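Structure tokens please, single chain.
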Amino acid sequence: MPSDAHRGLLDPAALARLSRLTVQARSPMLGTMTGLHRSATRGSSVEFAEYRKYAPGDDIRHVDWRVYARTDRFYMKEFEADTNLRAWLLVDASASMAFTSRHGCRFDQARRLAASLAWLLVQQGDAAGLVLFGGGGTVELPPRRSPAHLGLILDALAAARPSGGTTLLDTLHVWAEKARRRALVVLFSDCLADVPHVLDGFQHLRFHRHDVSVFHLLDPLELEFGFDRPMRFDDLEGAGEIVTDPATIAADYRAALDRYLASLAHGCREFDVDYQLVRADADWEAALAAFALKRLRAGGGARRP
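Here you go.
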């Protein structure tokens, strides 16, 4: 269970409920330890994969003698090896993530989700790593499986403060190349950038066969634009301010928002990116549970060691 220093990031009761689930890879992974996830290589687990013809030197224990009895030919049974999962948690720490309403701060929601997911991964024996990116620079902690490393991740999240302009696009491309082995890459961001460029980053990650998920964090004020009097809107990343009557721009704003969300969701489907819109007034535990359950269905169920 979490220490007192991390109580703001981890809820022990919620983690106890979530620990009944496993975070499953949707596609085969590569790893060096035995774990919960299908490997891209063949091994000798209980999950049958396929047959192949016998070759001299093969272990005769894997010959399917029933097939031999029917066909008078030797066929070897191959199985899917289980492996451990390596996860990179990419947390946007640009200034726009500091957006705060009566529902709370967007960055607090992002790091609570990331911290809880890291805890779940380490508890199930998988490796979790962290990338905090934004105008204030990048913090990188490579994936590790140990509880001590989890403590470092929680410390980094607790100390982080959102600032500066977004480096989302550069970060996606950098980590597409940097995470050389297949990995689960989970992004926590408001994704406030041109959609085609964001999708280019996702496509780059998918080209390297990473399993990509996105928690798209937006506030109800942004989604519903429920302002009823003249307002001054400040760009948290320093591009200026606008003073306007929301009633005069509400229709155009909502139309543009609908196009943006539809384009992003469509692109994620096209590139097989696991996309989840999370409102600031949503239950973060429910969002994380939905994420895990969707992956269990996509991965064909989980196997506890």
